[in-house]
Amino acid sequence: METSRPQRLVKRTSTWTGLERLRESFAGRLVTPGDAGYDEARRVWNATADRRPALVAGCATPADVIAALRFARDENLVVAVRGGGHSYPGFSTCDDGVVIDLGPMQEVTVDPDRRIATVQAGALLKGLDTATQRHGLVCPSGAVGHTGVAGLTLGGGLGRLMRRFGLTIDNLIDVDLVSADGRQIRASEDEHPDLFWGLRGAGANFGVVTSLRFRLHPAGPDIVAGAAVWPAERAHEVAETFRQWSISAPDDLTAAFSVFLAGDEFGPDLAGRPVVVIAAAHLGRDSAVARDLAPVRALRPALDTFARISYLDMQTASDDYYAWGRRNYWKGVLLTDLPRATVDILVDRLLAAPSERCGFGMITMGGAIRRVADEDSAFSGRGANWWLTTEALWDDPVDDEAHFAWGRDSLAQLRRVAVATNYVNDLGQPGEHNLRDIYGDARYERLVALKCAWDPENVFRLNQNITPR
Ligand SMILES: Cc1cc2nc3c(=O)[nH]c(=O)nc-3n(C[C@H](O)[C@H](O)[C@H](O)COP(=O)(O)OP(=O)(O)OC[C@H]3O[C@@H](n4cnc5c(N)ncnc54)[C@H](O)[C@@H]3O)c2cc1C
């Protein structure tokens, strides 16, 4: 149902001299409060980010991006840039400003001979995976199909194939973007290499990315994936095995360790109970899979679902669980160690959760990620062993505070034990963390210099913001 147009926006939009001019040349769709489809156009993944932009500019071309950006700057309106709309804190929307929505730009083209994908910046992971799998190729990316390629890549890109093929940024060839002053720029190792360095790990700060090119690798059409499940009483015993096994396994295997409340799909013995789960994806042959999963199977899980499945099915298996439009509080940390105290916190916090869809998951890093030199990109945390995420998911706004508090407290406890650093793509609101600590002094100073060069007025500030001096 459409909501009525707030008075202050009626007044504001009526004074925009440039809006009619923008409409004349705009190939995509411009939606303002009161227009049909406004509520749909302003929606982002996390329902707690319920904002009312003055204009959602659904861009169909880079020229649209330039025009929308110029309009926002002329009218002195704040700019939010939206790829897939998955930002946990809701950075890709805003109140009273302009959302530059790349959603209409979803084309993915694959050159199978050169093993390169060219991806428009509104594409989602599912679009990238579907297009590349037609040629038996993959680009390592994230674990949920409706995540945006652009936002995920610009922060780093961690996922199920990263130990074998690296982070998503490690496969990035070049990026086309519209700069704060409206120029079309290409950044790569050869063109604007400094900017290309910053785009890989702090990338939402420097412009509106319109297209990305990635190196691809042969994999699929199937892969071994699945999970082994135990009641949470066995958490320490399972974690003991996971700790060494997951980081010393061959790169073909990427494993995850999770703690949550089992749903009905886990069967009558486990449903409703706290469980620990080792999930894994394995790119190898059956004999290698059997060898590498043996230590996990030796722990006699209550449930073992490992099987050869389609790569595309694996990549979209969680899409419904993490559906758009629910309320979410997610944050992550990167760990070097996994001491008993961390496992205790995970189990204790699960038992203290305010509702059934709260839990923790950690995915193993290392492998190819660590073979890229730390200073080669702005991404911070290549030395970590695990990426741990705290997740809370609920529907009723009345329950917001209980879930926010649970997430905050869980992270505060984890931070006291064994945190290396953070992944910028799963930080919360500015003010909740210190970006200088996360990037480190040298990297942070380099990013500030880049920001001063490319966006001195901080037009792109709705992100994990590198503030220009
Ligand atoms: C369900 C879910 C699963 C996830 N799984 C993973 C995972 O497996 N691996 C992983 O690494 N991360 C994962 N993430 C985190 C994800 O990488 C970040 O939320 C990421 O920022 C999402 O990108 P987006 O384009 O969808 O989001 P958006 O909200 O559109 O954008 C996020 C940020 O990037 C900026 N941005 C987006 N597009 C552009 C562009 N074209 N040019 C410039 N800036 C842009 C936005 O302004 C904003 O600051 C997941 C998130 C969710 C919600």
CATH topology of the largest domain: Vanillyl-alcohol Oxidase, Chain A, domain 3
How many structural domains are formed by the residues? Answer: 3
Bound molecules: flavin-adenine dinucleotide
- Looking at the overall shape, the CATH architecture of the largest domain is 3-Layer(aba) Sandwich
**Please, what is the average pLDDT?**
95
Oligomer classification: single chain
Radius of gyration: 22 Å
- The portion of residues assigned to helices is 25-40%
Class of secondary structure makeup = alpha+beta
Largest sheet: 9 strands, antiparallel
Distance between the termini: 44 Å
**For this structure, what is the CATH class of the largest domain?**
Alpha Beta
- Continuous helix count: 15
General shape: globular
Annotation keywords:
469 residues; alpha+beta; Uridine Diphospho-n-acetylenolpyruvylglucosamine Reductase, domain 2; Uridine Diphospho-n-acetylenolpyruvylglucosamine Reductase, domain 3; Vanillyl-alcohol Oxidase, Chain A, domain 3; 5-stranded antiparallel sheet; 15 helices; binds flavin-adenine dinucleotide
